Queue: 4 jobs
Job 1
Amino acid sequence: MRADLLTDAVDGLDEALAAVDGFDEVLVAGLLRPQPAQADGLFALADAVAGSPLASRVAEAAEKAAAGAAGEDHFIALAAARTALLGSVHDALTVRMEEAVGRPRAEEDADGAGSPGDGDEQAAHLHVAAREWLCDLARAGWRGIDHELVAGATPVVSAMLPDPALRRLATLLDGFAAELAASCPGATLERVPVRRWADLWSRALLLTVPGAAHAPATAEVSGRLLPLGVDLQEHATAVQAQVHAVFEPADGGASRLVRASVSAPKPDTVVGAGLWQLLRPRMSLLAAVSEGRAMELDAMPVTAEGDLIWDDARARTGEPVEIFTTARVALPTAAAFATAPLDRHPARIAVPVLVEGYDVEEEDGAVAFRIAGQRLPVDTGRIPAAGPLTPEVVASSGACIGLLRWDAGEFLLQPLAVERRAGRRTVAVHAGAWAGGTTDKAGVRAEKAATDAVKVLRERAGKLLRK
């Protein structure tokens, strides 16, 4: 790894982010009665895209918004400019990462057909209703939100959810409205999540444009899947496991980086290793990861972005494989799929890498790897409690498979697995080692507690239903 490339400045990065930040601050106070400082943020955004096809539309939108006379089309143009800037940041950071790890680039574009609901009259009316609500939010600003304004999303979400073609937007609006409702009234907020709410607002607004919420193009692939590790993401009411892997086509084509995800709703009492009980029945791949085996895929659907649409009927367990062997032999030549335009955002970057030959630095509980004189921070906060991998284990390692991310202005490494010395042996410790089951004492206790919690909840739900 060329670790020095991860610390060098990226041309134009700071300027693009400054323009985004300036616009995000505009949304804090709202655009009903814009102030001079807000006009500066609007015009800075327009200047940042002055050399692009968006230039004229965004310039007009900035003028209208600064005068307090912006309409739906103007807000859409501003959201598009913001998204384009963050997309350029995503692309620049991705190129820098690929240069640092020496990995081949994907050349095809991620694209897809329009959503089936885009031309439906009911869908069109719902898109208009969603846009009206999002534009009202922009006028009020985050400091101006109240329960009445936020509640305007409820009928729109309820009408969208039954339509699969609108469910992506409905889910986004529902979650966004829930966050806003929990923060009302906005005038009393001590801290506003400025970047996050601007991300949600701009993404939702663009998804109301006909054709934007496209169904991803898919193909069918057959070959061998070599897991690299599991990224477990937990929420109070949901959990998701995303397996990162190298796919080797049966026809001898180039290896590709792919992902396979499974998610499930969860009660807040199920935590730690108990989470695997909710996910395990939904994806046989988790057992293969835990057992250290490859999987043979037969006509498995995959999107143009490299996401496998997992179907257990199209997969069977293969021979034993060692993930660090996969990382050393297969990972360096595996190319990533292209990212769809609306998904190009720095927060989405997660590039599988292998790092070794580093020195470990610890200071105030923070861990970093020193590689060829360059410091690479390790994001130990993303290590799940549902596995044997811990910050202490990472700090005693000599090799690490992880996801290279970018956050708060720097590159970070999220560990998925490490190699460490145990006496005279070198052993591997995986974050997803308990995904398919475990004999580890801590894991067994957590699974039993989760089983008991789910059993109690089912009994209570049964009583309520009988009433």
Job 2
Amino acid sequence: MIKPDLTLTVAEDLGKVHFVGIGGSGMSGIARLFINKGYTVTGSDVRESDNVLALRALGARVDIGHDAANVGDADTLVVTGALWQDNPEYVLAGERGLPVLHRSQALAWLIQKHRLVSVAGAHGKTTSTGMIVTGLLGLHQDPSFVNGGVIESLGVSSAAGADDLFVVEADESDGSFLLYNTTVALITNVDPDHLDHYGSLEAFEAAFVEFAGNASELVVVSSDDVGAVRVTAHLRAHAQAASPSIVTFGEHADANVRVHSIVTDGPVRFTVAWNGADYSAALRIPGKHNAINAAGAFAVLVGLGFEPQAALDAIAAFGGTERRFELHGTVGGVSVYDDYAHHPTEVAAALSAARTVVGSGRIIAVHQPHLYSRTKLFAQEFADALETYADQTIVLDVYGAREDPEPGVTGALVSERFQDSDKVAFVPDWQDAADYLAGIARDGDFVVTLGCGDVYRIVPQLLASLTRVRG
């Protein structure tokens, strides 16, 4: 994989900009903002997608497939970290001596001269970013933003606003969130992840300490997550006169913004205690974790000076983002959802949210493990989460993304760790998996595909098999 050179000086004018992997949610959002600024944008990706079509409609030339010829007369290359170093477009840029920017560097360049709200955390940052943006818009603000997923009510993952506020989902996976000149930092959690990059839990948490310490005004941080608590303790122990203010949020009794009275039988309802007063809200989306995400977004908005109840009411209008418990269809009484969850904690949260709205039906998880390293490290944790929160699980094979296959590491590492083998099946072939699902599904069941790879692409097969059997 390509890691960003955090020491690289970025030119004031980037000329014609070519995006390699332009179709991803983050990359397409950044490309859209470059187009809005009047830049000539080209790009390439491995397949057609809605993001590709949208960028073409805005005037970008996007080629399908990676080829050196795609670079054309570009002056700057923007790449995603998931790119292989033998990518022909990346190789050609090196031969020509073109500046090559990691997507985080391109985003940092866009953010210049704005007051930046950066949202980081192993989970919840896409939803929390969407809540903050939705809240600001509901409060009659006009922020710029780049999110890791399309915000349902807006239909886009990024936009250029007229205000000085800029809200971004900050990626901690490769350390690039340290690039940003952050004004307000939100840390949703510091649950161990991306240890393939950091090497140790200590290094992972140290990066969050640095990220939070770089904020110039405010740090909003979870009171419930043990890693976040350690980060907060370090920040307070080393506080100086110029250190940012710290506001904690969560269910913990000592949280500055405390969530309580959470009701999860459907779209989640809850109350937030802040500065001696209670403020209540009902979201449009389910899940206890989303009540806590909303509390973090609330803390950011009141920290920016907005009136508490108005801020919470504006956040409550958030309707979700793509690939976060997104309904794709119902066939014969069986509903098929897709979710981006790719860490055991995220899987547990997604499935527990599904449990609150499935009623008397069952939950059938279709889990695609992501990365060989993560699968090997967390196989037992994934099995525990899936067995606890799903009634039945179908495990697909590993989506390797930026990693080479590792001998012996397959989806079977997860399925073999279930205590009850009757609750799980390892089915690496997608059509076989779709047919297996159709054979076990019952009226009222929820099917939830889980993973941040390409598992969403199995959804049409699932719906087709359900139609053949139940339609």
Job 3
Amino acid sequence: MEPEATENVAPLTCARCGTTADGTPPTWTCSVENGTRRYFCDACSRANIRSIEGRLDSSWW
């Protein structure tokens, strides 16, 4: 087994509302803003889909 597969992974936290999840849920959105990866839960992603599709940074929404 590869070492990366056995490491403890910290839970992801939504950059907007603070919701946490174990692993990487397939319904969450990943955005790279100013060179930093940010994750948004499905509820925040749905509520702001137009801004996300318009490629606006999360600080705008």
Job 4
Amino acid sequence: MDGTSTLELYAPPAQEGPPMSDEPDNPDNPFKGTPFEAMFQQFSGAAGAGGTPDLNAIFAQVQQLLSGSTDGKPVNWDLAKDIARKTVATAGDRSMTSADGDRVADAVRLAEHWLDEATTLPEVSATSAAWSRAEWVENTLPVWQTVVDPVAEHVAGAMGNALPAEAQQFAGPMAGMLRQLGGSVFGAQVGQGLGELASEVVSSSDIGLPLGPTGQAILLPDNVAKFAEGLGLTDEDVRLYLALREVAHQRLYAGVPWLRQHLLAAVADYAAGIEVDTGKIERAMADIDPQNPEAMQEALAGGLFEPEDSEQQKAALVRLETTLALVEGWVDDVVREATRDRMPSAIQLSETVRRRRAAGGPAEQTFATLVGLQLRPRRLRDAANLWAAVRDARGVDGRDNLWSHPDLMPSTADLDDPIGFAQHAGELSNIDISDFLTDEDKPTDSTSDDDGDNPTK
């Protein structure tokens, strides 16, 4: 953003004050031995002549670092949206035209027609849209809140738990301010990450998560053009291929009701395993100048709130990455079948997408650093091979029927033996899925009043 800190844009100007104390140890510091000890010593530079901390001055200086209300939430999402939109505007964005929308609509209609032969999951894209980068930020923010809030909540809780019992008498107002500060800093950093992601994603499902509205296929024309640079292919081929992937994602998430919540639950499991390195926070706090709002942002960029990898967290990440790989691998196989005899350039485009998704773009890596989540399918190629093996052995129906219930899904170990799983999938495809469902999960037939309330039918 032209070298200007995001926090600098939103924080009030620093006020001059007395020099900070160089005293290495303050016996009146209630936060002694905690990650906040160094921060308190920095703030206690505003103390009176006797060296007694002036809490009013301390709270006033902390307030300078606050960038707005979080309304009790772990992330200041108003700030995140503002910064994301400013980041997009700085990088360059434009309003979509009717011609952009028409080209996307044509590509989506043809993609739906091609996919009818490649999957049993029905068409769901009743509408399509061409989004600008700013529209992507605005329209995907609700899902990002669901993804990021559990992570931020656990980080905030871990920081609060670092306060010792003897500091509780001082912690009331300070803890509230620190939570607000953390929400604002998280908001600033998430906003920066989303703004950068908005310049890379080509569709609403580009990173695997269902970020857009159900039943609407979305492409970002300017990012599609950026994706096509250097490939030596026609704009029509690239647009159609990316539309095929978007429509396939739409069919999968609409046709597999449990999948969306399954992914979000994996994120929540990851958040529950967060263990914050309080020592890292303490070392970072020692370098923060309370009169310099940029210092907190720099500390965060250096990993101030970056969680440690606990065993629970690693296990949750494996489950999340496996599910993302299965989603992307299925889409890869479906699109490959749909384009097999129609689009020679699909092979090149498929490989480009695979490399891009497996490695993650610069903005995706930045976002992963901020919230600790690696939202990319590390084993996409293995998953695509597994779905292809199942299709070869059991047909399109056998492949798609495995999405009927999460208990039928391939495991991480199955990705190591796709042929073995494909043989086993024949047994799975003959299972009566109703045996797995609770009464609430079982679909009801709105045209049959006699049987709709009978859980045995």
